[in-house]
Specification:
Number of helices: 3
Strand order of the largest sheet: 6-5-4-1-7
Structural class: mainly beta
Largest sheet: 5 strands, antiparallel
Helix content: under 10%
Number of strands: 20
Length: 256
Amino acid sequence: MAAEAGNTQPASCAVELDRVVPPSGNLWVAGQQIWLGPPMTGRLIRIWADTQRVHVLAGGHRIKTLPSRLDARDLARLRANGAVPAGAPPLPPPSGGIIEIERTVNASGNISVGNHVISAGSPLAGQRVTVRLDGPLAHILAGGTTVRTVACPVPQPARHRLRGARAGTAGPPHLSAPLTVRRRVSIRGAIMIGGQRIQVGLPHAGKTAVITVGSDTYQITVEDGISFTAPRTTSRDIKRHKASRYPDRGVHDGQC
């Protein structure tokens, strides 16, 4: 019965708090994971949470909503650690305020939006993407999934005059789930991923590295909990997701 009471908790018990997105793009709030992606690293976001829903806001605009895994005790702990009582649940902005355009990413990984250049990431070079201009943010979507979110450089009054501009939908963009792969560190302290050799370090030879793949970064964690970020310099698809069970030997250039 106590659990049922927690699930029917009124919205007045909701809390709001601010968090900075870490380099991994994975944010944790009272044990609940919120995936935002490495492109959001360093951004200050606002979390609205109750026992039913968790809303994520950036620049005052809702960018993600997911089911809540929090109970009344989790919310109480968040309040004790500085969270404030929340107001009404955030709503998406009216559709008239969102503009979408289509652009092709050039060889340098950039797109032109009016007189401005936005980096979409070199892995998207040659691809057709949708750019969703929503308040202070520009979401870059490939295949209907948000792959990057950046500050929008185009003033609101000028957006409807952009080439190919159309009214966007009011719903928040879908954020991609992280791609996580594993690699065995070679005796030379290196791994190969996406045709790119990355030096992890000789002390980690033989260990398994877990790599979270971003649009232009790799977040690499070895078994002892040490993490670092490496730039993604190739656009090759990653076809192998598991670590090879090879004996002590060097990394093969053909591995991806």
